[in-house]
């Protein structure tokens, strides 16, 4: 029996993860569907966005989204993220594009083994310290070096833009209580987290299984986002505040969108996740599609690792059982 509705697009028919738009943030509008496009209407007009070309749709306050819009986004492999005002709070996200658990299993193996986890952490930190050898550093040494690096980046951008800087100071529950630069840093981080989250779940990884971070539902998102924070989020925040916009958060979102597109963050994110979890070299030509498009189901086996799914096993056992149940022919007494 055929299922009603439009046939979902196959993975090979969709735009690759790294070739998509980073994110689209909408608020106080109605999100619906028209053919293969997502529409957003706020009374002033309607915007059409091809769903298959979108990495993440961030739904802010005051949005109403139709069932068909969510169906289209899910079938297109686009992640839907429900966020708070100005995009600085995360509430929930949609389904993954992945059809295989290969990366998820690799992630679990890395996180559950101390030696492999330390190796993965060193790979992540090596991307932040280009040209430096971190292969022999402990986690304590890596954290100390990272802290010093980030403080240096803050000071550099403060001097370069003329924006006063004291320290990172913000209230998660009160965005407006922070000064302009801390608001900008929070907004920039939220944009970066949203895009990285969309890639992480699109590849089938678990956002909560972090390598460096732990104990939070988005630990791995923070791990990966930190690879680009000093390069993108901090500079954007200081540059935007230096321009003195009225709407700091809105200006930061637009600037982050452009910066992440120019830096090809989604493409880099796919490569970096593979390198951290699978040891795939950064120079390897791997798109990540082979890690998400295989639609297969296997059964775990304690001897061979796995066996094919969709197969009825045990006929040989049943045949033997039948023979035992029937027993040998016996003569009547």
UniProtKB/TrEMBL annotation:
Mn(2+) binds at residues 146, 213, 226. Its cofactor is Mg(2+); Mn(2+). GO terms for molecular function: endonuclease activity. Keywords: Antiviral defense, DNA-binding, Endonuclease, Hydrolase, Magnesium, Manganese, Metal-binding, Nuclease. Residues 319-333 have a biased composition (Acidic residues). CRISPR (clustered regularly interspaced short palindromic repeat), is an adaptive immune system that provides protection against mobile genetic elements (viruses, transposable elements and conjugative plasmids). CRISPR clusters contain spacers, sequences complementary to antecedent mobile elements, and target invading nucleic acids. CRISPR clusters are transcribed and processed into CRISPR RNA (crRNA). Acts as a dsDNA endonuclease. Involved in the integration of spacer DNA into the CRISPR cassette. This is CRISPR-associated endonuclease Cas1.
């Amino acid at each position: 029996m055929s299922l009603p509705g439009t046939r979902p697009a196959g993975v090979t028919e969709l735009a690759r993860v790294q070739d998509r738009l980073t994110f689209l943030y909408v608020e106080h509008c109605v999100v619906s569907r028209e053919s293969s496009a997502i529409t957003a209407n706020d009374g002033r007009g309607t915007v059409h966005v091809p769903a298959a070309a979108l990495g993440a749709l961030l739904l802010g306050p005051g949005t109403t989204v139709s069932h068909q819009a969510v169906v289209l986004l899910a079938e297109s492999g686009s992640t839907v993220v429900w966020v708070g005002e100005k995009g600085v709070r995360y509430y929930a996200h949609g389904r993954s594009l992945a059809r295989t658990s290969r990366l998820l299993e690799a992630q679990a193996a890395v996180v559950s083994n101390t030696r492999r986890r330390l190796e993965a952490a060193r790979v992540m930190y090596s991307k932040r310290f280009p040209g430096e050898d971190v292969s022999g550093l402990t986690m304590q040494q890596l954290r100390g070096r990272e802290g010093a690096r980030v403080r240096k980046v803050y000071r550099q951008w403060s001097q370069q833009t003329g924006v006063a800087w004291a320290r990172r100071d913000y209230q998660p529950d009160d965005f407006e209580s922070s000064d302009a630069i801390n608001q900008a840093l929070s907004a920039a981080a939220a944009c970066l987290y949203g895009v990285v989250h969309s890639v992480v779940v699109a590849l089938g990884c678990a956002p909560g299984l972090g390598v460096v971070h732990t104990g939070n539902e988005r630990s791995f998102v923070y791990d990966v986002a930190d690879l680009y924070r000093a390069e993108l989020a901090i500079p954007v925040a200081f540059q935007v505040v230096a321009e003195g916009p009225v709407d700091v958060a809105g200006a930061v979102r637009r600037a982050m969108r452009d910066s992440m597109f120019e830096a090809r963050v989604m493409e880099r994110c796919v490569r970096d996740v593979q390198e951290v979890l699978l040891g795939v070299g950064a120079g390897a030509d791997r798109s990540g599609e082979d890690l998400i498009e295989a639609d297969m189901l296997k059964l775990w086996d304690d001897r061979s690792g796995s066996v094919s799914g969709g197969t009825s096993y045990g006929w040989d056992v049943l045949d033997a059982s039948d023979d035992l149940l029937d027993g040998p022919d016996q003569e009547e007494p």
